[in-house]
Design goal:
Blueprint: H1 6-22, E1 30-32, H2 33-43, H3 45-50, H4 55-64, E2 71-73, H5 74-89
Antiparallel strand pairs: 1-2
Protein name: Protein S100
GO molecular function, one term: transition metal ion binding
Keywords: Calcium, Metal-binding, Repeat
């Protein structure tokens, strides 16, 4: 059995994390706003604590729902993680 690279492991963890929280309520292939908030609180606690006010988290979640269906699908979740990764790494071009 071959071992996964670090990047393959990171990708697998993204999928597992999304699936774990998406399984709770509603459809199993999307996150409800409540599931997304729980995911952020449990999986990114440092980021949530760093937010200046609790309303910011809700604003982020609403901004993630690109198609306006009140759910976050996997591609919307990946965009969030990629955006946060860029912000933490400070490598993205400033807008």
């Amino acid at each position: 059995m071959s071992t996964m690279s670090q990047l393959e492991t990171a990708m697998a963890l993204l999928m597992q994390t999304f699936d774990k929280y998406a399984a709770g309520q509603g459809k199993t292939d999307t996150l409800t706003q409540a599931e997304a908030k729980t995911l952020l609180e449990k999986e990114l606690p440092g980021l949530i604590k760093a937010a200046k006010n609790p309303g910011e988290v809700d604003k982020v979640l609403k901004g993630l729902d690109f198609n306006g269906d009140n759910e976050i699908d996997f591609s919307e979740f990946v965009i969030l993680v990629a955006s946060l990764t860029c912000a933490c790494h400070d490598r993205c071009p400033k807008k």
